[in-house]
Write a structure and sequence with these properties.
There is one protein chain. With 344 residues, the chain is an alpha/beta fold. The protein has helices spanning 56-67, 98-105, 115-122, 183-196, 207-219, 227-235, 239-248, 253-277, 294-297, 300-307, 313-316, 329-340; strands at 16-23, 27-36, 39-49, 73-78, 82-83, 86-88, 95-97, 109-114, 131-135, 145-150, 154-162, 165-170, 282-285, 321-324. It has a 6-stranded mixed β-sheet, sandwiched between helices. A 5-stranded mixed β-sheet has the order 3-2-1-4-8, with helices on both faces. The chain is globular, with a radius of gyration of 20 Å.
């Protein structure tokens, strides 16, 4: 869908085996791709619970053992800022470096990139059915692209438009400060400051953020929590998933109000990201949560809030808005990067 800049694509003429990864605070999704030209064949894929391994290198070694093939290159999209080939995971007690992976695997061509940068590259691999359109905007307008992705954390990235191709780049915008607008927002900010200190957008627009909003409505705003819901939350390991599911099914007012705020906050930060990057080329909403709450994003709430942005409504309403439905987008992007951005 999106033409990205791939510096070595025309030079590489032999099939490559690329170990690609999408590594977050909850799971590590790894795949072995055979890449040649426009074709990316997934030869093997497996997911590993991040918390069950002491180091990420242990997962890489286990994957190579499981797939029974040695890759030519490794490219991993990781949830955190990559500095000089090293990342300290934001939501996991891991520190990973390319040097360590090279040393332990013996594979010399290894690259770490931010997981949202990998998602940006992955947009080039998607088909029409992998995308849900919230707003068509003005599709023919060329310009930068913004990507926002709530999951275990909140990822944000951009794609700079230059001539005929896009250049993806990572940001850590999800950790910028939460900006309250209403009196209720201010109360939520004050509530979260008592436990989080500096309150970022990630604290409210993420999986854990859903339950933080829910607790605020229950404990501070004194909204009623039905007994059956209390029991359900105690029984299920993922409380945020329970809240969002009950909201979609309209079974509890407190859950519906929680997700109302979540969608509002997602729309507001999405608009801010679009304005900061002047991304008239489009906004892509990725991550693990949006496809699961697509019914809530289809309502007027998201788009009306997205447009409510001071004096830039004329610009914002021209921006096409899409939800990325393919949960392997970052994995595909890491495979594409490994094949054609890492030299042979």
């Amino acid at each position: 869908m999106i033409p990205v800049f791939l510096p070595y694509k025309d030079e590489i003429r032999e099939p490559q085996l690329v170990l690609a990864g999408d590594v977050g605070g909850t799971k590590a999704n790894l795949a072995l791709f055979k890449v040649l030209g426009e074709d990316m064949e997934m030869l093997y894929n497996n997911r590993y619970p991040s918390s069950e391994y002491d180091t990420f290198t242990d997962i890489v070694l286990q994957f190579i053992k499981d797939c029974k093939q040695t890759p030519d290159k490794i490219c991993l999209g990781v949830a955190g800022p990559v500095i000089k080939g090293t990342v300290e995971f934001t939501n996991l007690n891991w520190k990973v470096s390319t040097d360590e992976i090279i040393s332990k695997t013996g594979i010399q061509k290894v690259m770490l990139i931010n997981d949202l940068e990998a998602t940006a590259y992955g947009l080039a691999c998607l088909k029409d059915e992998d995308i849900y359109t919230i707003s068509d905007g003005v599709k023919q307008t060329e310009g930068n692209i913004a990507i926002i992705a709530p999951g275990t954390g909140l990822g944000e990235a951009g794609m700079f438009k230059s001539r005929s191709a896009y250049h993806p780049f990572a940001t850590e915008g999800g950790h910028s400060e939460f900006a309250p607008r209403t009196q209720q927002d201010i109360k939520l900010l004050q509530h979260l400051q008592s436990t989080e200190g500096v309150v970022s957008w990630e604290h409210v627009i993420s999986g854990p953020g859903i339950y933080r909003i829910y607790e605020f409505l229950r404990d501070v705003e004194q909204m009623d929590e039905p007994a059956w819901l209390t029991e359900m939350l105690q029984e299920e390991s993922n409380a945020s998933a329970v809240v969002s599911k009950m909201a979609i099914e309209k079974k509890a007012e407190i859950c519906q109000h929680t997700m109302h705020l979540f969608v509002e906050y997602l729309a507001r930060e999405s608009a801010s990201l679009v304005l900061k990057l002047k991304s008239v080329g489009g906004l892509f909403i990725g991550g693990g949560i949006p496809p699961k709450i697509i019914n809530l994003l289809q309502t007027d709430l998201f788009f009306k809030t997205f447009l409510d942005c001071d004096r830039m409504q004329d610009l914002i309403k021209e921006v096409p808005v899409y939800v990325v439905l393919n949960d392997n987008t970052a994995l595909l992007g890491a495979g594409l990067y490994g094949a054609y951005v890492i030299a042979s």
